[in-house]
Design brief:
The complex is a heterotrimer of chains A (140), B (125) and C (798). Chain A is mostly helical and 140 residues long. Chain A contains five helices and two strands. Chain B has a domain of 85 residues: Helix Hairpins (Orthogonal Bundle). Classes of the chains: A mainly alpha (140), B mainly alpha (125), C mainly alpha (798).
């Protein structure tokens, strides 16, 4: 796995996969995709990076502890549900906000925030596990 | 075609159970994954099969313009797959650590929690 | 009744618990004065209860209720009438003195704060018990007294005898607690009410009266230690002396007496009631009296006389006449005063002289004069001399039996014998340690501190003061109390005048004379009784041990049977269950009928057709089967991992073919990641990939697996032959765009309709991740040889 070709090409693949994962996550509400798939793709990207450049390098590239990302995901997923309390509706009632930006309108909604939370959880947890297994048990 | 898949589900379950009954931890782990796949397929098939039409409403429409695949089992299975994977990772790491600290991958030799000759409870207060 | 009264009556039962929680902190802050500070709580309760005397004497009852579980019509209701007020006043009054006493008795004990906490919690439970009107609240407080007394008796938990005493008390009194609960439920079933005050004669008239009576009597007899369930009480003497002084004078053991008195109006008065109570009470009275004479340990002597006194109380309630009930009330108060006082005296002797053995104590009166005065006042009350409460109690109980019938005469003889023995013991307790020649003691005896003297002196003085104020006593204690028990107005006729013509006087004199005889012959009787006890061989105590050890052996055997430690057998058990659950119901409910061809199909075998599948679909299914077969037959790790990937990919393709792209992608990614991390781990382990099962195990497991697989297939086919309830799917499909603004229905279900579920699921994923990281971060330790397995799991490395 330590071939020169793999090491050279891996960051490129990883970058593409990460961008793709965000795209898949965000389009999930209307097309095939969503937080679960996006998170898995991003976690695979991290696994590839860990294989090519080493787990320590991958952790450094990530900057944040992956489990912290997972925790943040659970937090914003729960928080998005709490937002409905301000409208006086039950927990997790969705709220939609359409931002008119010139030609297009960008829909912002609590389900989207929730989906991003799902993305973070799946991405964070699985990257943490994969990187820990790749890098032995030593911690950063 | 549903019945063919029903048979396939049976094969998954049978193999999963067979592997789980073996005493090697890694084979049990693989059995767990296969059993999980079998159960996911079971739910999927029980929700009836529809060829190639994803449960997605075409853009610009309020309702799908024809029969679509049943979305409910899909939603159930999607989370099941991810949780199953988390479970798989956990079991794998658990087996890994058990192997490291007990030097055993055969469940018959893992007797830390339930020792072979456990003494009787003491007859006192 | 306004809120203020409601709250304050409930507070009577709740405040001690709050104080109990604070006790350890108060102990830490006010170290030597913890007892004094905490005594303010029961003292305050006592003063508050005093203010209730006036309305209760005026003939009223004070009740209060707080919503408890309003949905079930349950209320935490309290009722203060003459009976409960008498008990509550005694409990809180003696409780105040006991808390003071404990503070001094256990002054140097490091866990004094905890002890005071237990004591206050116990007092709260006891107050709740006597004030509760709701039967379930009564049960709750009843059980709380059992639990807190368990903590108190086992306070000195490093000694096995203390643990045994505590467990014994807990087990026996909990049997009674369960009986009480069942009894309360039966009564509720009969009358529709949970309130004790609402019950009338309907229970007595019903066919279930025998059952209700039995259950309530079991409850009362276990708590009040009637023969043959008496043995826990002497063993409870393992507790520190203040506990004995409290539990065995006014509280714990009187709970049963209180219950009997409380249930008299709607349960008592029948022939069965009278006979059972009189017989058991009389037996306990004699047994306890004889038991006391057998002992030479002061504390054990008092414990046995407590048994006798409880028997006496039960007997009096059983008689149920006006005089008997009045005697019971007077006796309860008198007994609580003198028994608490004597226990405190014994504790002081033990504390200052270092022994409780009556045969090696003597002449302490000079060294401990105040203690002696307290002991004298209490002992005289126990003997029943005039100018003490005990005198009136004895007069009243004899008065009730002046009918010259054979049954009354028999009871009178039992009472005479019992009272004589109690009087004899009282003389022993007073004379032996305090009078006579000075004997050397393990510690040089000196006077106890004031907090330990307050109890006996105050109680003794109160007993004398109360006995002088006969009118007041009759008016505030006997009349309201007896009225509450009997359900009708009662007039008291207590008098200090001594009438030489009355047979009562002569009965009293006979009691004292017999008591003196007992006192003179104590040593001879002790020898005789001990010989008799040794000849008996076994006691209720040994039976209890046999039962408890039998239970331990039984549970050990069951554990060994079920927890054999063979994982494959556990799993086989599970899968046999699964196979049965799959196959049997389908057979029983004729599920296979749906799979068989219909009769009107005619020659159905000619119409069999090959399933309508596209070639590529066959291909995918074949791929799945190849993957499964390869997993089964793999002989090395790499093949097994690849085969796992193949079957997973095939599953992903199946999802893709049948309209589930989301699932397909997810499954595919999961398979890739599974293979990657499996490969990462497997390369580090030298694991055997070969199946090591012997052939017969392979055949057995294979058969079981096949049955499970076939069962799942059949179940699925039966499901498929039925109709599908699509209401929920249709709802989601129809509303996905209009309501949830999403075109991907699966995603909408996940993040919107069933978002709460998904939130839980991602939390599970997160938790699994944390668990994995925790496992991985444990520092790797050198492998432990598997054969001599360590007894316990090693603790996680820091």
């Amino acid at each position: 796995m330590n071939s020169l070709i793999f090491r050279t090409i891996a960051p490129l693949i990883v970058a593409v996969m990460l961008v793709f994962s965000v795209y898949v996550c965000l389009r999930g509400h209307n097309e095939p995709g969503g937080g679960f798939i996006g998170g898995l793709i991003a976690a695979s990207a991290m696994a590839i990076l860990g294989m090519s450049s080493g787990a320590a390098e991958a952790r450094r590239a990530l900057r944040i502890d992956p489990l912290a990302i997972a925790g943040f995901g659970v937090f914003i997923a729960g928080f998005s549900g709490l937002l409905s309390l301000f409208t006086g509706s039950p927990f997790m009632t969705s709220i939609w906000l359409y931002l008119e930006l010139g030609q297009t309108s960008v829909p912002l909604s609590t389900p989207m925030v929730f989906d991003i939370g799902v993305y973070c959880v799946v991405f964070g947890t699985i990257s943490a596990v994969a990187l820990a297994l790749e890098g032995g048990e030593e911690e950063p | 075609m549903d019945y063919v898949l029903a048979g396939l589900v049976g094969c998954f379950v049978a193999l999963g159970v067979y592997l789980l009954l073996s005493r090697s931890v890694i084979r049990m782990l693989i059995g767990m994954t296969i059993l999980g796949n079998g159960v996911n397929l079971l739910i999927f098939t029980a929700g009836r099969l529809t060829r190639e039409i994803a449960p997605i409403v075409p853009a610009g429409l309020e309702q799908p313009d024809g029969p679509i695949a049943n979305p409910l089992p899909q939603a159930l299975i999607l989370t099941a797959i991810v949780i199953g994977f988390a479970m798989f990772s956990f079991l794998l790491v658990l087996a890994f650590r058990a192997y490291q600290s007990l030097d055993a991958d055969n469940t018959d030799t893992m007797r830390v929690a339930e020792p072979v000759n456990e003494p009787n409870p003491p007859l006192s207060y | 009744m306004g809120f203020g009264m409601d709250a304050s009556i409930a507070l009577v039962a709740i405040a001690p618990f709050v104080a109990a929680l604070l006790a350890p902190f108060i102990h830490r802050l006010a170290r030597p004065y913890a007892g004094w500070v905490l005594a303010l709580v029961p003292g305050g309760i006592f003063l508050f209860l005093l203010t209730l005397i006036e309305p209760v004497v005026a003939g009223g009852t004070v009740s209060a209720s707080i919503g408890w579980v309003p949905a079930y019509g349950l209320e935490l209701s309290f009722l203060v009438d003459g009976l409960s007020l008498t008990f509550a006043l005694t409990i809180s009054g003696i409780g105040t003195l006991i808390v003071l006493y404990s503070g001094a008795y256990l002054k140097t004990h490091p866990h004094l704060g905890r002890f005071l906490g237990f004591l206050l919690a116990f007092m709260g439970a006891m107050l709740g018990l006597v004030l509760a009107d709701n039967m379930l609240a009564l049960f709750m407080f009843w059980e709380l007294t059992s639990v807190t007394s368990f903590l108190l008796i086992g306070f000195d938990h490093t000694r096995q005898a203390a643990r045994r005493g505590a467990i014994q008390a807990l087990v026996i009194t909990n049997i009674g607690g369960m009986a009480l609960l069942v009894g309360a439920i039966v009564v509720h079933h009969l009358t529709g009410s949970w309130e004790l005050s609402a019950l009338g004669g309907e229970v007595r008239g019903s066919g279930l009266y025998g059952l209700v009576l039995g259950l309530f009597l079991v409850a009362a007899f276990t708590k009040s230690a009637q023969v043959p369930l008496h043995f826990w009480l002497p063993n409870a003497m393992e507790a520190p002396t203040p506990v004995s002084a409290f539990l065995h004078s006014a509280t714990m053991v009187q709970g049963g007496v209180y219950l009997l008195a409380r249930t008299t109006p709607w349960l008592g008065g029948t022939e069965a009631w009278t006979w059972i109570l009189v017989c058991f009470g009389g037996a306990t009275l004699l047994w306890g009296g004889l038991g006391a004479l057998r002992q030479n340990d002061l504390k054990q002597m008092l414990a046995q006389t407590t048994l006798a006194s409880l028997g006496l109380s039960v007997l009096l309630i059983g008689l149920g006449t006006e005089a008997a009930i009045a005697a019971m009330l007077l006796y309860f108060v008198a007994h609580a005063f003198y028994k608490a006082g004597l226990f405190m005296v014994v504790g002081a002797i033990d504390h200052e002289a270092g022994t409780r053995d009556i045969t090696i104590l003597g002449g302490l009166a000079d060294r401990m004069p105040v203690t002696f005065i307290g002991a004298a006042m209490a002992s005289l009350a126990m003997i029943g001399l005039p100018l003490t409460l005990g005198y009136f109690a004895k007069e009243e109980m004899y008065l009730g039996l002046m009918h010259w019938q054979w049954s009354d005469m028999a009871v009178l003889l039992v009472l005479l014998a019992g009272n004589a023995m109690l009087a004899g013991v009282a003389m022993l307790v007073l004379v032996r340690p305090f009078l006579g020649p000075v004997l050397p003691t393990p510690k040089l005896a000196h006077e106890a501190p004031i907090a330990m003297l307050a109890g006996p002196v105050v109680l003794g003085a109160a007993s004398i003061v109360a006995s002088v104020m006969t009118d007041w006593l009759g008016h505030t204690l006997v009349e309201p109390g007896a009225a509450a028990i009997l359900g009708e107005a009662v007039s008291s006729h207590l008098t200090l005048a001594i009438n030489p013509a009355s047979p009562l006087l002569w009965l009293s004199i006979a009691t004292w004379a017999l008591g003196y005889l007992v006192y003179r012959q104590a040593a001879a009787m002790r020898t005789l009784l001990r010989r008799f006890g040794a000849g008996l061989g076994w006691t209720a105590d040994t039976v209890f041990d046999a039962v408890m050890f039998g239970l331990i052996r039984f549970s050990g055997a069951v554990t060994r049977l079920l927890h054999h430690g063979r994982l494959e057998i556990y799993l086989a058990t599970v899968f046999v269950g699964l196979a049965l659950a799959l196959i049997v119901p389908l057979g029983v409910f004729n599920g296979y009928g749906a799979l068989l061809p219909n009769a009107d199909l005619g020659n159905w075998s000619a119409k069999l057709s090959w399933p309508q599948l596209q070639p590529y679909e066959w291909g995918v299914i074949a791929l799945a089967l190849i993957g499964l077969g390869a997993v089964l037959l793999a002989t090395n790790r790499l093949v097994a991992i690849l085969a796992l990937g193949i079957q997973g990919t095939a599953v992903a393709l199946i999802f893709l073919m049948f309209g589930a792209p989301d699932l397909a992608f997810t499954q595919f990614m999961v398979e890739v990641l599974s293979v990657v991390i499996l490969a990462l781990v497997m390369t580090r382990l030298r694991l055997d990939e070969l199946d090591q099962r012997p052939l017969e195990d392979l055949a057995r497991d294979g058969t079981l697996a096949l049955v499970c697989g076939v069962g799942v297939s059949l179940l699925l086919m039966v499901v498929l032959s039925g109709t599908l309830d699509t209401r929920l799917s249709d709802l989601f499909t129809a509303t996905s765009v209009p309501i949830a603004h999403g075109h991907n229905i699966v995603n909408v279900i996940l993040v919107d309709y069933r978002g709460f579920d998904t939130l839980g699921e991602i939390s599970v994923v997160m938790a699994a991740g944390i668990a994995i990281m925790a496992l991985l971060r444990r520092r790797a330790k050198p492998a432990v040889p598997a054969a001599p397995a360590p007894r316990r799991r090693r603790k996680a490395a820091p």
